[in-house]
Each structure stands twice: as structure tokens, then as C-alpha cells.
Design brief:
Layout lengths: L1 H6 L2 H10 L7 H17 L20 H8 L7 E6 L5 H11 L5 E5 H16 L3 H6 L10 H11 L2 E5 L6 H16 L3 E6 L17 H10 E6 L5 H6 L5 E2 L4 H14 L13 E5 L2 E5 L1 E3 L2 E5 H6 L4 H10 L2 E7 L7 H16 L3 E6 L13 H13 L3 H4 L10
Parallel strand pairs: 1-4, 1-5, 2-3, 3-4, 6-12, 10-11, 11-12
Antiparallel strand pairs: 7-8, 9-10
Helix pairs in contact: 3-5, 8-9, 9-10, 14-15, 15-16
Length: about 400
């Protein structure tokens, strides 16, 4: 079994992509892959963290293997923190590593989605009685939920892979130090990507001194690897391509489809194999018909003709760096509700630097022909025009202003 796993490590997979012509030589990527391969082989013998479930009262137990490992002279494998500019291949390399990671107990999640999950668990814990908290392993009169929550997470995933780790919210900043201290103590291995080096996280944020221990933990428990190659692969795939197609016909649909496959390094012949995805939004599910490598595809009807709201659009904006929308109609008084949702959707994408490609019935300046959302739609048209600019397409994904 071990021999088979060694043959399917990140370096082997990366070389296969190189030979297939899907990737170009990149010295920084090669160095990062070597580190990912190191972790891959260390995980082969690393014991998984077990679990048993009792409703919400998830009671974790840790087999003798994990105690022997953590209590021996062996150090737990160092995780990895990949950081660098936009489009340098961070998410691609992490996904490559995750796809062949030799451990079944693993989870790959966008960091913002992970933090939403943590805040939901915190609220649930605070709603419990003292007796119910004790069932989770909390000591009497213990008001700290972090050990219990960390045990839950560790029981669900021994390997945690985070995409786009960034901290702009003081509520997240105050939680992270305590949470990750407990996760590392449980033996959880972390791999993360970020646009920023650890020392720049939550830079100039409120009460940042209380966040510094989290940065120290990252630097101690994770190997920090820069990806600062000269090529912005994501922008190069968009460079020269149209982002706004009209009218809606077979030709524009085909052009959008070709752009999707170019952005995701997939062959058009494999269109039937493109996966779908489900996002969790405030306890509800949002279906994503097609998604790959941070690119999502939706029809206008799915997102704007249905009763979705700001929370749904923000979830999309935070999860995907590029969104493709098909078949935007011309707006008038009869579809003003759809127009309002479209305005909110574009606002969410714009505020998070999401790249937007679409097919529409008419050019941007002709999209709106009347109704009660005129002023708001003027701003939307302006943003649609800016989102086609070279400077916008070359910008990063996500909020960049520290709160």
C-alpha cells in the first residue's frame, strides 16, 4: 500500500501535468511541490484522529496511535503555508496535494466558510446547558468552548486544507489564536494558501497585538513557502479574452464555454466530467451547477429569478475568484425584482474583486430600459464596465482592507 501511495504523490502528479502541457515550468512551483511531497510521505504513517457521534454531542476519542505519536520523540509533520500574488498557482498546488493525500480523514474548505462554521459552532455551544457542555467533555464551570470545538473538528478531519486564508474581521481574529492552539494540540495538520505572508495578516487591524500569537503559531507549526514567480497564470488565461458577450446565441455560449475550460485547465472533450458543488449559506444549501479551480458557472435564472439574497451572493463572492453567468436578459418594469437581485449580485462580486464573465441579451448600457431601480442600475452598469478593465482583471480576489 505504501509503495502505491508513494507513486501517486504531488511530485508525480505535477510532473504528469507538465508532460501533458497543462503547466509550464515554474521554479517557485517546483520548490513548493517538493515541500508538499515531503508532507505527503510523512502523512502515510501518521495516525488518523478517530471519532464517534452522539447527535450534536460529538464525543471525540483519539486512538492509542495518535497518543503514541504525540507523546513520542517524533514531532507531528509540519503543515504548509503557501503565499504569493494572484494567479501564481497556490490553490492549484494545494488541490493537487489534497487529491492524493494519503489520509481519509481530510477536509478542503475556503477559509471564510470555515470561519462561518466556527462561529455557528460557538453559538451552538453557548446555547447548551452546563450538563450538555459536560457531555462534550467540558469541565465543570468551564466557559471556554474552544477545547470542545477543536475536538469536534479534529475528529472530523486530521488534515485541514484552507484556501485563501485572510483575516479582516476582528471577531475572526480574536477566535483564531485559541482555536488553532487547540487544533495543533489535537494533532491536526494544516495546509493553507494566502495572498499574504503570515506577518501581514490582519495588518493594521483593531487590537492586532492579541492576534500576534496566531501568527507565531503559524510560523512554528507550518513551513512558510512563497510563490512569487513572475507569471500571473490566472490573468494570462483571461488576457485578451472577452468578458461580456452579446447577444445570447450559440456562438457567445460557445465562446464562454471555451473560456471556462481555458481558465480551469480542462479539455472541452471532458465537459461531462465538470463537477458541481453545494455551498452552505446560513443553514441552507446553494447549488453550483459547474465549478472547478475557483471558477463557478450559473445561469441568470438560477441566481436572480429565484428568491436569493445578499447572503447567497456573498457566499459565492467569497468562494470563487471567477464567476460566469449565462443568459442575462434586458431589464424593464416587468422584471424589476430580478434587476434588483442582479444589482445586489454584481455589488457582492465587485466588492470582493471577483472576475465576472457573462452572456447577455444586449450591451451593458442597454441592459436597463425602465422600472424603479434606475439609480442603482446606473452604478451596476458602471461596475460592469470597470470589471472588464485590465486593472480589474489583474487585481486580487477578496477584500484587501483590514478592519
Amino acid at each position: 500500500m505504501q509503495q502505491k501511495l508513494e507513486k501517486t504523490g504531488p511530485e508525480t502528479e505535477y510532473q504528469a501535468l507538465m508532460q501533458a502541457g497543462e503547466l509550464k515550468p515554474d521554479d517557485d512551483q517546483v520548490k513548493a511541490v517538493a515541500v508538499l511531497d515531503r508532507l505527503h510521505h510523512e502523512l502515510i504513517e501518521y495516525p488518523a484522529i478517530g471519532n464517534k457521534r452522539d447527535g450534536f454531542a460529538l464525543k471525540s476519542w483519539f486512538p492509542a496511535g495518535i497518543f503514541r505519536w504525540l507523546g513520542s520523540n517524533k514531532s507531528a509533520p509540519k503543515g504548509i503555508y503557501l503565499y504569493g500574488g494572484v494567479g501564481r498557482g497556490k490553490s492549484m498546488l494545494m488541490d493537487l496535494f489534497y487529491s492524493v493525500a494519503p489520509i481519509a480523514s481530510k477536509r478542503r474548505v475556503h477559509f471564510h466558510e470555515f470561519m462561518l462554521d466556527i462561529h455557528a459552532r460557538l453559538k451552538q455551544w453557548h446555547d447548551l446547558s452546563v450538563r450538555e457542555r459536560a457531555q462534550h467533555g467540558s469541565r465543570a464551570n468551564d466557559d471556554d468552548p474552544m477545547p470542545s470545538i477543536a475536538r469536534q473538528i479534529a475528529s472530523e478531519a486530521t488534515l485541514l486544507c484552507f484556501d485563501e486564508l485572510q483575516v479582516t474581521d476582528i471577531a475572526d481574529a480574536m477566535v483564531l489564536t485559541r482555536l488553532f492552539k487547540e487544533l495543533f494540540a489535537q494533532g491536526v495538520i494544516v495546509v493553507a494558501t494566502s495572498n499574504r505572508p503570515p506577518d501581514d495578516l490582519y495588518k493594521s487591524g483593531l487590537n492586532r497585538q492579541r492576534f500576534l500569537p496566531f501568527i507565531a503559531q503559524l510560523k512554528e507549526k507550518l513551513e512558510i513557502i512563497p510563490l512569487e514567480g513572475p507569471t500571473d497564470y490566472r490573468y494570462n488565461r483571461l488576457k485578451g479574452a472577452e468578458t461580456y458577450y452579446f447577444p445570447i446565441n450559440a456562438e457567445t455560449t460557445g465562446q464562454l464555454s471555451a473560456t471556462f475550460f481555458r481558465l480551469t485547465d480542462r479539455r472541452i472533450e471532458d465537459r461531462a466530467k465538470v463537477p458541481s458543488e453545494v455551498l452552505n449559506v446560513q443553514g441552507r444549501t446553494l447549488f453550483v451547477p459547474k465549478s472547478a479551480r475557483g471558477v463557478a458557472v450559473f445561469s441568470f435564472k438560477r441566481l436572480c429569478a429565484n428568491p436569493l439574497g445578499t447572503a447567497d451572493y456573498l457566499a459565492i463572492a467569497r468562494t470563487y475568484h471567477t464567476v460566469i453567468m449565462v443568459a442575462i436578459p434586458q431589464f424593464n418594469a416587468e422584471n424589476s425584482d430580478e434587476a434588483k437581485r442582479f444589482v445586489n449580485f454584481i455589488d457582492a462580486l465587485y466588492e470582493h474583486g471577483v472576475k465576472f464573465l457573462c452572456s447577455a441579451a444586449v450591451p451593458p448600457k442597454s441592459l436597463y430600459t425602465g422600472g424603479d431601480v434606475g439609480f442603482e442600475f446606473e452604478r451596476t452598469i458602471s461596475r460592469l464596465m470597470e470589471m472588464q478593465s485590465e486593472s480589474y482583471l489583474a487585481s486580487g480576489h477578496g477584500k484587501t482592507i483590514a478592519v
